[in-house]
């Protein structure tokens, strides 16, 4: 993956349904065909960790381009769009962490690995459940093991430029 910084705009195209993209709709992760401006916005994410996320390693998080502060997260192994709720306490430093914030960061953290069905693509492996990947089943997104050929194909994506541009990077004038 060649995206750099915290503001690249990207979209995730399905490997086995190439006319469909990962998107959020009604705060749930789905795989849909893209036909409207709303579809394009819902299928565009900002990849990066941001300065507040303590998950270590080369993990990424997928922030909704049109719902800033909301990230793809697994919860109960369903993929959802969920708001990051930072701890607001004037007596605590901005880096203060709670069990809830640690879980949120772990649930939104993913490793991009060579695609399980095609190594020129990517699969998106969970940080805190490393035996599970984002995959589509019935065009809904789940965090599941990829134990067979269908599951491996369902868990493989192409990273494309965002269907809409992201915000300007702060280091480019």
Automatic annotation (TrEMBL):
Q: Where are the transmembrane segments?
A: none
Q: Where is the Alpha-L-arabinofuranosidase B arabinose-binding domain?
A: 8-46, 103-163
UniProt protein name = AbfB domain-containing protein
**What CDD domains is this protein classified in?**
beta-trefoil_ABD_ABFB (cd23399)
Q: Which organism is this entry from?
A: Lentzea kristufekii
Q: Which Gene3D superfamilies match?
A: 2.80.10.50
Q: What top-level branch of life does the organism fall under? A: Bacteria
Q: Which InterPro entries does this UniProt record tie to the protein? A: AbfB_ABD, AbfB_ABD_sf
> According to the entry, what is the taxonomic lineage of the organism?
Bacteria, Bacillati, Actinomycetota, Actinomycetes, Pseudonocardiales
């Amino acid at each position: 993956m060649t995206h750099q910084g915290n503001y690249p705009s990207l979209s995730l195209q399905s490997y086995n349904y190439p006319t469909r993209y990962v998107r959020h709709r009604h705060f749930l992760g789905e795989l849909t065909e893209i036909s409207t401006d709303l579809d394009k916005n819902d299928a565009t994410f900002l990849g990066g960790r941001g300065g507040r996320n303590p998950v270590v390693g080369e993990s990424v998080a997928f922030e909704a381009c049109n719902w800033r502060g909301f990230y793809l997260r697994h919860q109960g192994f369903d993929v959802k769009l969920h708001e990051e709720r930072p701890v607001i306490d004037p007596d605590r430093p901005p880096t203060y962490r709670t069990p809830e914030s640690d879980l949120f960061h772990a649930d939104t953290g993913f490793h991009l690995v060579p695609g399980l069905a095609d190594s020129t693509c990517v699969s998106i492996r969970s940080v805190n459940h490393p035996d599970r990947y984002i995959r589509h089943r019935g065009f809904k997104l789940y965090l599941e093991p990829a134990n067979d050929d269908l599951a491996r194909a369902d868990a493989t994506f192409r990273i494309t430029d965002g269907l809409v541009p992201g915000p300007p990077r702060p280091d480019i004038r």
